[in-house]
Amino acid sequence: MGSAWDTFIEATIANNGLHKSLPARFTDEVDIMYRLANSEICAKLLSWLRNLPRVLPIGPDMSNDLRAKGNKLFKENRDPIVVLAAYNTAIAAAPKGSRAMALGYANRAIILIRVGRYREAFYDCQLALDGDYPEELRLKVYFRQAECVESLDEPSKLGPIIEGISKANDTKELSENGQAKLQMLKAKYAAAEKCTVGITQTASEPESRYEASLKVVDSPTQGRHVIANEAIEVNDIIATETAFSFVPVYEPNARNTLASNDCQKCARVNVIPFVCATCGRACYCSPQCRENHQSVHRFECYGYQKRLWFSIGIAHLGIRCLLDGFDTIRNEILKANSATACYKRLLEMTSGEENELGDYGKVFRLVTNFKKMDKDDVLRYALAGLMLSIYLIDCTDFVSVHGLSRDDTMSASDLRVLLGALIMRHIGQLVCNGHAISELRASVRFDYTLTRAEENLLPPVILLHRYLHSSRVFTAIFPRISMFNHDCDPNIRNHFDRATLKVYATRSIPAGSEIVNCYGPHYRLMPVETRLMHLHQQYCFDCNCTRCRTGDDTYLKQFNTIRCPRCRHNFSMELNLEDFMSSFRYDFQGQPTACPECFQQLGTELYRYLSNSRFDMLEHSSSDFKRVIKHYDYCSSLLVDSNQTKATILQNILDSYTQYAGLMEAESFFTLRDYCLEFVTMRRNQFGFMSMEYLTACFYLLDIWAEYYRHVGDEGVTLKPEELTALNEFRAALSMVGEDTRALISAYMKQNVILDEETPYDCWVPLL
C-alpha cells in the first residue's frame, strides 16, 4: 500500500494497541470488524479521509491558462502531442459544466482532426456543444463536427448538426460557402436516411469459460485446483475470461496526478483521455464508456479528488469488487438484521461450485489465506476494509442510493461492519488471486504521430523501442482462472486483450495433469531461495514444484556466467552493475567480486569498463562508437554468452545509439545492427520468444531496419536468415498483446515499409 496510508496506519496500530484486538486464531472477517469498529478508531479513520488534500486545484483560471498555452503552441506549429498535452490538462482542470471545459473540448477537437482522430474529435465537438460554449462561436464547431462525420463516413449522424447550423443561421447569416456546405450536408443526410436499415444490437456478455475440457477438483494438499480431462496440445487455448473487476496501476514515484490514458470501463489502453468531469482523474476512451461506468465511479469520484486510490494500492480493487458486485447481494443485505447473519447467508449461498450469486459468487468464494497470514498483515487489511466502509457511508451517497437507510434494515454500525468485512475479504482474496494485466505502454507521442493525416507533419524518426515498453497497466480478478495453482515452471501463458484474459498451453498436457500458472516467481527470473521466500510471504505456501523440489538453478546460472580474466575459469555469479561498482567506493562494506578458482578480484579494469557503460553521455559519432565497441568487446570476453549483465550493457548501447544509426558510417551501422540481433538472441535464450522481454527486444531490430530504409531509400532491407527467424517469431509473439497495440505496431511497420501496404496485417513481409 502507499506511503501516506502506511504511515497513518502504523501510527494508529501502535498508538491504540490494536494487536490486542485480534483473536488468537482468525475466525472470520465480521468478527474482526466488530473488534475494530469502535467509535474512536472509526473517528480516526474518518478524520484521515477528510483531511486528505485535493491533488490539484481545479478552477476556470487554471484551465484557461493551460488552454491559452495550447493555443500558443498550436499557432507556433509545435508538435501536436505538446498541444494535446496542454489541452488534456486544461480539460482536467476545468470545473464541471464550466465554459472553460467547453472551450477546452472545442480546441482539442481541432488538433485531433489534425492528427486524424476523427472519432474522438467528434466526441469533443459534442461535449463542447452540450456545455457552456459561446452561442456566437457554435457555428464553427458544428462545421468542425460535420467534417468528422464526413471523414468517418457516418452521414446518419448529420441530423443534429444540420439542425444546429440552421439554428445558428437564423441569428448569423451563413456565407455563400457556408450555405453551399449546408445544402451538401442536407443532401448527404437525406441519402443516408433512405439507406438506413434497423439493426438490433445486443449487449455482449462477459466471457468466462474453460475452452478445453477441464475439471475443478479439491484435495487436502492442493486445495481447489484444475486438471485436464483430456489431453491438451501445445498452443491450444485453455480458458477465456473477462475480468470481474479491474483498476489502474499507479506508478509509485509518479509526480503527475493526472489519469493514465487507459479506460476504466473497457480496459482499452493508450487512449485519447475523456476524464470524469468532476474529479478530472478517472480516464475513459469515450463519453459512452464514461457514462456507462458512472454507476460505479460515482462512489469513487471523491476518492479520486483526494488521491485516495493512489495511496491504498490493492485495497482499491477490493472496494471495486464490492461496487461491481453489489447489485447481486443488495437484496440479501436489505433482508438481514445483522452483519453476522448476512455474512453467514452469503457464505451459504456460495458454498458450492454452482453458487446463487453468479460471477460475484465466484469471487466471493476465493481463498483469502487470512488464517495463514502474519497478524500484522491481517490487521492492516482489516483497517483498510473498515476505512473504505466508512468512506462509502460517510463520504459518498452509497447508503441512500441503495436504500440502505430504511428503518427495517440493519443498523448503521452493523452496515459499517458488513461492508468493511466484505471489502477486507476481497482484499485478502486479491493478495493471493489478483492478476496483473500487462500491455505495451505507448508514450502519447507515439500514439498520435502514427495517425497523422498530413505527411509533412511526420517527425524524421519514430522509434518503437523509445515509445513502447512493457508495463503493468491494471490489476484484475479472474475468478475461474484464479483456481489454477502455482508452479515455477507453468504449462500455460497468459494473453491479455483489454479486460479479457486468454490462456494457452505452452507444452502438451496429458489427461489428468494439473493446469498450473506462475504467480510471479518464475524459474527463469529468480533462484530457488528467492522464489520460495516470495511465495511464502505473499501466498502463504511452500512451493513443492519440480524446480523448487530439486533446488536446481542451472538454468538461471547460465545467464550469470563470468570468465576470470586471469585463469579463464568460468563461474556463475549474479552481477548487479550497481552493487559491483559500489565495491570500488570507499564506503563499501561487502566482499569484492573474486574468482572462486584463483581468487583473482575482478578489479579496476572491468569496473572501469562497466562504469563507462553510460553510453548516453557520449557524443554518438562514429568515432565515438568505435570506443564503445572496444568497451563492449572487453565486457563480452568476461561476461559469457547471454550473461544478464552483458545484456543490460548491450541494451544501454542500443538505447543510446539506435536513434543515431542513420548518421553512422556503414561499418558502424552494421555493427549496431549485429548488436540488435545479439540482444534479441539473448532475450530469446533466457525468456523464450513468447515473452514480453523478447517482443520489446525485437523493437531494436525493427528500428534499425527502418533507419536503414530511411537513409538508403527504396532498396529496403535485405534480412539475414537469423533476422527472418526473429521477424517470424516476433509476429507470433504479437498475439500476446491487445488488438489496439498491434494496430499501433502495424501502423509503424507500414509507415517504414517493413510491412507492405497491400498486405493484410497478419501476413508480414520484409522487403527483400
Give an overview in words.
The structure is a single chain. This protein has 768 residues and is α+β, with helices and mostly antiparallel strands. Helix content is 51%, strand content 9%. It has 33 helices and 15 strands. Strands 1-4-12-11 form a four-stranded antiparallel beta sheet, with no helix packed on it. Helix 8 packs antiparallel against helix 9, helix 16 packs parallel to helix 20 and helix 31 packs across helix 32. The C terminus is likely disordered.
The DSSP helix count reads 33
**Beta strands, count:** 15
Strand content: 5-15%
Find the structural class using helix and strand composition. alpha+beta
End-to-end CA span: 53 Å
Average residue-wise pLDDT? 85
Radius of gyration: 29 Å
Name the overall outline: globular
The helicity comes to: 40-55%
Question: How would you write the strand order of the largest sheet?
Answer: 1-4-12-11
Largest sheet: 4 strands, antiparallel
Low-confidence stretches: 198-203, 445-460, 583-590, 613-618, 755-768
Question: What is the structure about, briefly put?
Answer:
This protein is α+β, with helices and mostly antiparallel strands.
Annotation keywords:
768 residues, alpha+beta, 33 helices, single chain, three-stranded antiparallel sheet
Helices and strands in order, then pairings?
Blueprint: H1 3-16, H2 29-36, H3 39-51, H4 60-75, H5 80-93, H6 99-114, H7 118-130, H8 138-152, H9 158-171, H10 176-195, E1 208-210, E2 214-219, E3 223-228, E4 237-242, E5 245-248, E6 274-275, E7 283-284, H11 287-292, H12 294-297, H13 301-305, H14 308-312, H15 315-335, H16 339-349, H17 358-364, H18 375-395, H19 398-401, H20 412-433, E8 435-442, H21 444-449, H22 464-467, E9 468-477, E10 485-486, E11 492-497, E12 500-505, E13 516-517, H23 528-539, H24 546-550, H25 554-557, E14 561-563, E15 570-572, H26 577-582, H27 604-611, H28 622-638, H29 644-657, H30 666-687, H31 692-712, H32 721-733, H33 739-751
Parallel strand pairs: 10-13
Antiparallel strand pairs: 1-4, 2-3, 4-12, 5-9, 6-7, 8-9, 11-12, 14-15
